[in-house]
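Forum > Structural Biology > Help requests

Title: Can anyone predict the 3D structure of Propionate--CoA ligase?

Hi all, first post here. I have the sequence for Propionate--CoA ligase but no way to get a structure on my laptop. I'd be grateful if someone could post the structure tokens.
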Amino acid sequence: MPSYADFYRQSIDQRDTFWAEQAQLIDWQTPPRQICDYSNPPFAKWFVGGTTNLCHNAIDRHLKDRASQPALVAISTETDTERSYSFAELHAEVQRMAAVLQSLGVKKGDRVLIYMPMIAEAAFAMLACVRIGALHSVVFGGFASGSLASRIEDAEPVAIVSADAGSRGGKSVPYKPLLDEAIALSKHKPTAVLMVDRGLAPMAMRAGRDHDWAALRAQHLNAAVPCEWVESTHPSYTLYTSGTTGKPKGVQRDTGGYTVALAASMKHIFDAQAGQTYFATSDIGWVVGHSYIIYGPLIAGMTTIMYEGLPTRPDAGVWWSIVEKYKVTHMFSAPTAVRVLKKHDASWLQKYDVSTLKALWLAGEPLDEPTAQWISDALSVPIIDNYWQTETGWPILTLANGVEQQTTRFGSPGKAMYGYNVKLIDESNGEELTAPNQKGVVAIEGPLPPGCMQTVWRDDERFVNTYWKSIPGRLIYSTFDWGIRDADGYHFILGRTDDVINVAGHRLGTREIEESISSHPNIAEVAVVGVADSLKGQVAMAFAVPRDASGLVDDAARLKLEGEVMKQVDSQLGAVARPARVYFVTVLPKTRSGKLLRRALQAVAERRDPGDLTTMDDPVALQQVKDLVGS
Ligand code: AMP
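Reply #1:
Sure, ran it for you. Structure tokens for Propionate--CoA ligase below:
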């Protein structure tokens, strides 16, 4: 066994040898000719000349040895159902879905947008797409019609797969009206819409365009759809994420690099074995859902659990009862979920036998020490923080316990993972900070390792300009996070360098929320900032200047307008983006040159010292904010 330090060094110093070895973890139809082509930086091509298929590696490859082992268990505490599919059954379902998609005109390279709750059919749809070489673009079910429409327009899907409704806290959330509205709003129209009817909400079906999954599935019960062998660099999917500008970016992922990266992460990071059980509590609308609900565990031959429901319903023991029942070995969740559980008695977690758990991995937002300590005491299993992004597809910082057991340090997501040449950069001059405990921008020297984004969907220029040109004088990938590294190589993440906020692990662009709010007829101008919150990590807070404030005579009138603004955000972006408060002001704090003083606004909203304000135009602006938030 090499030490992790040696393993890491090899991944950087002998990059191609290292990844050639990792490439052996998956099946190739044609082996790669070249490991990494980085002749056109920052565009990296991994495993050039190789052909493979993601679905083959996730399912077909395991049929020989584990056809009857459960591959996917879909549990819903919303509908009180548990459906289990062996690898053989999953193989059959995915082929049926693939045949249905083909019958609707989907071909290799086409996009299929998936707007679904956490049900097994969502997994079938994702796997069916990559089986036939089509690209899926999953949109989180909590997003509303405006967000959905912008993604439909950008991805230009041939088909959309959706369901009548999701369910949350026992209440059904109809999807079809939002979907119809989004299609109406979008300039691009899909040719086919495939609806899974769960019997939760009525659906208006449009003849010729909308199709019923159950009816078409019945026509393709014995479908045999072979895997389409695609080039390693063939895109497997796009997944939209928020950045500084209003328009979400389609993160585009390849096939071969992603499959190898996930297979390697299952071995080295998760120390996972085929036959074990993985339970990630995320949603397929997020990157964790892609990598560690669907692809990673299946590639490793594990059973994966998909969960629809809350962590506290019917009670706070529900996840741990699943761990006991299915002998879960690997669990992956988010700090927010733990903070929700923390409001309940720890005895709920101790009611069940969780001794099968090797560890609980947490990611998506900063894991504060008290939360880590609480869950560690409650569960008595190792708690492992991991830091990464939609863009990277797998952890940048964590512990690679499959290589060498390392100790968790609460407050730190851990060490740089193999393949990631992580640097801390002085933002002012682009120089690397090598001494310990210095604060810099967390950056990654190219090439990004396999599995990371190839580019922004149909926008190479945006990929280069957004991620690789933000640090003066060097072509280096910026994560847009501040960080420090201690003398032992443990990193600490200190927050975003840009205008992105993280609400309960959901990444939101403040500009996106601002755009939605300013489209209200009575809002002239608005600033949205992220404010620290003990449950959600951060919440969005809006400060808006009304066009006509004459009606805002009392609290009732202000609350009415606040309610209208919130409703507008709900209907355009979804409740995830709804600000916790909308405060009305007469002027926003700006510099004399008209630049919004976001940091100062955020500081005051968090009741902190706003710092140097010498460039501020009108001091009244911040005073109003102070009065409103009571700081
Ligand atoms: P997303 O692309 O939605 O996964 O969001 C990625 C961003 O979430 C990162 O750039 C960080 O700002 C934040 N993030 C993710 N994981 C962690 C973590 N373990 N600790 C601190 N911040 C995190």
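The domain at 499-630 is CATH 3.30.300.30 (GMP Synthetase; Chain A, domain 3). The longest helix spans residues 555-572.
Shout if anything looks off.
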